[in-house]
Design a protein that fits this description.
With 517 residues, the protein is α/β, with parallel strands linked by helices. It has 19 helices and 19 strands. The chain folds into three domains: 73 residues, PAS domain (Beta-Lactamase, 2-Layer Sandwich); 175 residues, Reverse transcriptase/Diguanylate cyclase domain (Alpha-Beta Plaits, 2-Layer Sandwich); 204 residues, Alpha-Beta Barrel (TIM Barrel), CATH 3.20.20. An eight-stranded mixed β-barrel has the order 11-12-14-15-16-17-18-19, surrounded by four helices. The protein has a five-stranded mixed β-sheet with strand order 5-6-4-9-10, sandwiched between helices. Strands 1-2-3 form a three-stranded antiparallel β-sheet. A hairpin with a 3-residue loop joins β12 and β13. The relative contact order is 0.08.
Length: 517
Amino acid sequence: MFGASSQNDLLDQPFIKRLHRGDHEVILQRLQALQHVGDKTTPHHERFIRLDGKVIDVEVKSIRVPVDDGVATLVMARDISERALNYMLNYDSLTGLPNRRLFQERLAAAVMACTDKTWMVATLFLDLDRFKMINDSFGHEVGDQLLLRVCERLSNTVADDVIIARVGGDEFTIILPHVSQRAEVMAVVRRVMDSLTNIPFIVHDEEIFMTASIGISLFPDDGKDAVTLFRNADMAMYQAKCIGKNNYQFYNVVMNSTGTATKQVVLERALRRALEQEELYLVYQPKVDLKTGHIVGLEALLRWNSRELGHVSPAEFIPLAEETGLIVPIGEYVLRSACEQSRAWQVAGYEPICIAVNISARQFLSSDLTDTVERILRETGLEGRLLELEITESLLIQNTESIVQMLYKIKSMGVQISIDDFGTGYSSLSYLKRFPVDRLKIDQSFIRDLTWDSDNAEIATAIISMGHSLRLKVIAEGVETEEQKQFLFERRCDEMQGFLLSKPLLSAEIVSLFSYK
């Protein structure tokens, strides 16, 4: 735990040297309290210091034991980093509800258990109306407190065997595992809507009235698996929004041919033309070393200014590109453009800088990525060490030998590899050891609230500690405040990026941050 090579590294050292300085007073008070509270204390969370200076999170118990003519204090500690990560992978850090991953597992289990054809499984997709306006008006702290109150009301409204999950910012899903007819589902939906609308929420002395739009899909009529049921409930919810909010809609196959689908067809048609019409372009966000404050890299981010649709959000067109397979040619465009730009900056006399490019799972699996990377590096003249590929955790769960070999081939070119949005996918510590990874990027959902949300703070700390134990660098994305930066600095996070440093900039704008050779 302490990184000692032998017991002699720790013997005869004052115990207080192994305690985080910020926890000295609290721990000493607890040890002194043993004189009065009996022979043991309840477990508590503390921070210890390894011999190499790294901070680790541990669960500590203290016990009084007889020794010769007196009494000694035995302190037992265990590393809780992996347990925190396991919790993080399955539960929402704000509400404690199951997250999207665990929800889909439990929905799949409910479907599997529904062997009697007289029973149905209902999936409810609930989206709070006007929640963004509340966040913008009262701030995220009020918004988060409101989400906790909503969670409480939902839990008090439904039966004990009903499963509730938080799958997005203001999105909740509910599984009704055994229903015999639609009337039962409608009764539950009405109770849920009444629980939100009948009594206002009081948050920080603010009286807030809430409504919700709910979409419903039923097994087996609307889907035979968890993914389909989830998607169709989401589509039904969107329809409920379109017809005026504060209502519910059952899924209907017609929804696949109107409304959302029509919009997707228009979007796909425009996206297919985007490459040839040169509507896609890159912006760059700097990454900074937390110790030195120097810029150590850039992340290339894709943007789309459509002649037909105007500026389209990446959150809207990237999923569509992956679904249609367009992500493969688009991804190659991003990779080539980033490498060309990096090389152009060097030729112009600027110091070489590493550029990170996101590689989607479909892009990774649908093309010979190693040949593509090798060809682009050769044609642009860029050194492999100046390119970083960011892959998603969903690739790791597959853990196939072909993926491992592909990553090692990419590493042989000198290219760096990082795991993007770490903590939101399906990976485990055992998978990380198999892959030639250089960095972990802590997802911004954990960074945003870590200065006041103890769960997110513990998760971020655990990821940093775990990354360092595997000799990986750790970078935090989405850093927006000095408080967040200071927290990460104290936990020895290696790098950060976010609006506190700079928003994503065009190539012509970002050169002002560079230095010459």
